[in-house]
Specification:
The structure is a single chain. With 202 residues, this protein is α+β, with helices and mostly antiparallel strands. The chain has a single domain, classed as Cytochrome P460 (Chalcone isomerase, 3-Layer(bba) Sandwich). It contains 6 helices and 8 strands. It is globular. Pfam families: Cytochrome_P460 (PF16694). InterPro entries: Cytochrome_P460 (IPR032033), Cytochrome_P460_sp (IPR038142). This is Cytochrome P460 domain-containing protein.
Length: 202
C-alpha cells in the first residue's frame, strides 16, 4: 500500500502551474482519499517546525511542505496544485513508574515511532471555502487510513481559523521562520484542544 501511495504522492509534490481540482470528501470520499495518499518519505521532503507536549502523554511533531512554507514566508495564499501539505505525527510519551520520562529540557520523551499521522492538503476549489483543505488520518506503521478519526469534526474545528487559511499553527510557523528554531512547548490542554501558541500574535 505504501509503495503505491509513494508514486501517487510523487505526482502531487511536483509543483504545477495549473491547479488540479482535488475532490472533496463530502463530494467523493473515495476520490478524496485517492488524492491524499499516505505521504511516503515526508520527513525527508518536509520541515519540522514544532513539537508539542500535552498532559495526556501525547507528543505531537508538526511538519510543513516546502511550498506551504514558502507561502507563509512570502505572505501569499497556499498554492492549490496539491503540494501544500501539513503533517502532524502523534506519539505516546515514554513512561516509567507511572510517570512520563523527561529529557534534560524537561520535555516529554516520545516513543520511537508515532501511532498515527494527520495530513492536511490544500486543494483547488472555491476560494475561501472550508473544503479548500483535504484532511486524512493514517496509521504510521501501515499507512492505512485510521477509521476512528472523525474528519467532519476536524473541519468543524478548523473553521475558526479561517483568517489564517484554516491552519491553527500558522502563527507558530511564523515564529519558526523568524527564529530559525523548532518551536517546543508544553500545552496544558488534552487531546487536540487549542494551545495558547496557536493564537494570533498581538
Amino acid at each position: 500500500m505504501k509503495r503505491v501511495a509513494q508514486y501517487a504522492l510523487a505526482g502531487l509534490l511536483l509543483v504545477s502551474s495549473t491547479p488540479v481540482r482535488i475532490p472533496s470528501p463530502q463530494e467523493n470520499p473515495d476520490g478524496a482519499a485517492a488524492a491524499l495518499p499516505y505521504p511516503e518519505h515526508y520527513r525527508e521532503t518536509m520541515t519540522l517546525y514544532a513539537v508539542v507536549d500535552r498532559p495526556d502523554g501525547m507528543v505531537r511533531k508538526l511538519y510543513v511542505s516546502q511550498s506551504a512554507l514558502k507561502a507563509v514566508q512570502s505572505k501569499q495564499p497556499y498554492p492549490t496544485s496539491g503540494d501544500a501539505l501539513y503533517v502532524i505525527e502523534n506519539y505516546r510519551a515514554q513512561s516509567a513508574n507511572q510517570k512520563y520520562l523527561l529529557d534534560a529540557q524537561r520535555h516529554m520523551v516520545p516513543k520511537d515511532i508515532p501511532e498515527t499521522i494527520h495530513v492536511m492538503q490544500r486543494r483547488a476549489n472555491k476560494a475561501g471555502a472550508m473544503d479548500n483543505w483535504n484532511v486524512q488520518s493514517f496509521f504510521y506503521n501501515t499507512g492505512e487510513i485510521e477509521g476512528r478519526a472523525n474528519l467532519f469534526e476536524c473541519w468543524a474545528c478548523h473553521v475558526s481559523a479561517e483568517k489564517r487559511e484554516f491552519v491553527f499553527s500558522r502563527p507558530v510557523l511564523q515564529r519558526f521562520l523568524a527564529s530559525g528554531q523548532v518551536q517546543r512547548w508544553d500545552c496544558p490542554k488534552i487531546n487536540r484542544q487549542l494551545c495558547d501558541q496557536h493564537l494570533d500574535p498581538p
